[in-house]
Amino acid sequence: MKRICAHPHPHPREELSSLTGRLRRESRKITGPRAAILEILRQHPHPLTNREIFAELPKRGCDLATIYRAMQMLEKLGMVKRFDFGDGAARFELVAEGDDGHHHHLICTLCARVVEIEECFPEEIERRIAIQNGFRAVTHRLEFFGVCPACQK
Ligand SMILES: [Zn+2]
Ligand SMILES: [Zn+2]
Ligand SMILES: [Zn+2]
After folding, report:
1. Of 53, 81, 96, 99, whose CB is crowded by the most CB atoms within 10 A?
2. What pLDDT is recorded for position 130?
């Protein structure tokens, strides 16, 4: 499925220099592939799979395994958030500094168009679920699926 980025992301994109600055502060080297991966993530308003990042790399300067390791590191540092669209491929999106990146997506099941969704459950629901089941620190993951306007024609 080809992805179409028709919707602008509601959050402003961080400058590449600011992203590499965050890496440097974590004592991580700014290698060519790492900078290229960050730039690709910066230019895409929606979560990307490792393969999609690989396909966007200009000169195929690194292999999939390098991207896989870089994404693991970025996730550990809290610079990207992992999303699951239920197709077995991990997807990554940049997270603004000091943000937990919690949000949802609406995905077209026909063309794979992704819309960023800013709405979320009222906290009250999580509180009630936590209390009723004796849990603490309850959170949730949720993605919406449907047929987009272009695919309804
Ligand atoms: Zn998103
Ligand atoms: Zn569609
Ligand atoms: Zn939510």
Report:
1. 53
2. 97
CA of 46 to the centre of ligand 2 (A): 15
CA gap 109, 105 in Å, rounded: 12
End-to-end CA distance of the chain: 18
Neighbours of 18 (CB within 10 A): 13
Q: Which ligand is nearest to the CA of 4?
A: 2
Q: How far is the CA of 5 from the centre of ligand 2 (A)?
A: 11
Entry pTM: 0.84
C-beta separation of 23 from 132 below 8 A: no
Residue 96, pLDDT above cutoff 60: yes
d(CA 145, CA 74): 27
Residue predicted with more confidence, 12 or 75: 75
What are the pLDDT digits (tens) for 45-83? 899 999 999 999 876 678 999 999 999 999 999 999 999
**Is-contact 23 33, C-beta < 8 A?**
no
Q: Considering every ligand atom shown, identify the ligand nearest to the alpha carbon of residue 108 and give its number.
A: 2
